[in-house]
Amino acid sequence: MPDTPRSTDFRPALYELSDSFRELDDTAAISYAAGEVLGRWLKVSRAGYGTIDRIAETITIERDWNAPGIATLAGTLQFRDYGSYIDDLKRGETVICTDAFGDPRTRETADALVAISAQSFINMPVTERGGFVALIYLNHATARSWSEEEVAFLRDVAERTRTLIERRRAERELRELAASLERQVAERTADRDRIWRNSRDLLVVIGADGIFRAVNPAWTAILGHEPEEVVGRSFHQFVWPDDARATQGALDTAASQSDLTNFENRYRRKDGTQRWISWQTSTEGDLVYAYGRNITAEKEQEQTLRLTQEALRQAQKMEAVGQLTGGIAHDFNNLLAGITGSLEMLGKRLEQGRLDSIPRYVDAAQGAAKRAAALTQRLLAFSRRQTLDPRVINLNRLVADMEELIRRTVGPEITIEVVGAGGLWLVLVDPNQFENALLNLCINARDAMPTGGRLTIETANKWLDDRAAGERELPPGQYVSLCVTDTGTGMTPSVIERAFDPFFTTKPLGQGTGLGLSMIYGFVRQSGGQVRIYSEVEEGTTMCLYLPRHLGEGEDTPPGLLPAPEAAAGRGEVVLVVDDDVTVRMLVVDVLTDAGYTAMEAADGPAALRLLQSYAHIDLLVTDVGLPGGLNGRQVADAGRLTRPDLKVLFITGYADNAVIGNGYLDPGMQIVTKPFAIDALRDKIREILEG
What we know:
This protein is of the alpha+beta class. It has five domains: 11-173, GAF domain (Beta-Lactamase, 2-Layer Sandwich), CATH 3.30.450.40; 199-294, Beta-Lactamase; 310-382; 391-548, Heat Shock Protein 90, CATH 3.30.565.10; 563-690, Response regulator (Rossmann fold). It has a six-stranded antiparallel sheet. The protein has a five-stranded antiparallel sheet with strand order 8-7-11-10-9, with helices on both faces. A hairpin with a 2-residue loop joins strand 10 and strand 11. Helix 12 (431-447) packs antiparallel against helix 15 (516-526). The longest helix has 57 residues, at 296-352. The protein is elongated. The N and C termini lie far apart (151 Å).
């Protein structure tokens, strides 16, 4: 049967297809529209579009176009039931069959093809994203030849169909994605709103200008203000006045994109009370998003704890004061008993004319007075209020000078080892006080080794970083250490804790004052250093003194190494004596007069200054530091030197703030002695100063 004449101009068909596609969204409707145009224009039995499963080698057809009397193929078909041409389709080749009985790929299954009205057909593969995913096909119930124009028309329709289906699928996926995002946004917004409403902490949005943009309801619960009373107003209207400046600085920092962590300030509650808030922030654009936690209860607990600790410290202080007072009273009563008793007996012996006993009572009174002076100095050392005469010294040299004395003191049962560091740095300390401290440490070490042992004295240079300095309660820097180590009985932690307390001692009653270590501690702390104890029971003890390195001028000769001036009579030099204590002033004047000097007296600072500003000749000013009348001894000396630049000065004091006398740095021509002083020592010091 000859072929029916067919059209070769398919442009109208393509226009018709475009019109049909314009309103279609559904894949099945699009494929049916394509099939209908193909079927009518090509006058075939069936035209359709199906999706491919390459693995299963099946095609699934939702809907196809069929000529009158032709059954639909909608459903899933197995390619192998109709021939082997699936292999060509997998390779992306279009399969054109003019007669199933004559095509080797379909010869054995031709009857099956005829049964579905497909004796001749075209199967054109459709690829998406590089894979064979669909098929557009033409079926004809009888044998038929296919022209190049028809194949080209089919290819054009297939491409348009594939493109539209892909576009519609992408649009559908995009709509689904948008809908999903809208749902997520709605859900997250709902979550955020729930957090915003239900949060027990402050959530705020504030501008860089300090104006609140939004606050959550917790503001009402914590600070008493309704949100509408806050939004649109400056934080200055709510923050505690004392914290306004710090809060402004924190806001400026947060607005500059530097997030705040645990910034604390106080806000004023509506009832006028304050609340402590700890803030965390993040910034976007000109807005700062802040989360504030109410820490008022924690602050109150901290305050309660501080007050409790302060009360405990006060109680401990009062206990220490009581212990100190009791110890002082005990020792001073003993000393006063010796002094007053000796003086009373001295008076009675003078009345009786029994002069042979006088020296004994004089010696007893002087001995008790000296012990009282030593006790006072130890108390001043403990309280870091003693008057120091610091010198630049090398501890290696000082230890070497004391080594023989230490050996005689500790006895032959104890082996002494001295380890001096090479290149030891200099320190600025009072050498006499340091000698006393070292000797005390060695005596304590001896007492801890009653059956003998080893005593090591070691010096070292120390660099203390932040951690090491913090452990020793010192500023970081360079220090010189002197450690005294024994192999004795050691100390328990409780003894170490109280070792520096005044009058605390582990020795039997009457064998120790309990002021040795407290004196050392006070002296070292007053010198800018620290003392540390390292000890284990039955293992021994190490006492380490840390003193700041001195970076100034070189070593001075310690006073103890200066040759003693020869006793000599004065040559009439004029000495101005200033002291508000009549007895002390009388004694100093008598000493000066007996030594051949001319003495002038003043009872207070203004009187002394008038004499210094007069035309009277004055070679030396001897003045107490603490004076009545509004001028202390240092001020008198400084004022006197304005008119007498070469005036020599000797300060005498029982207790003075080191800041008054220059923190131990006296000007040239100035020296100091402490009360009580020996008469001979005072006379020798005056001669030393006057002779230069």
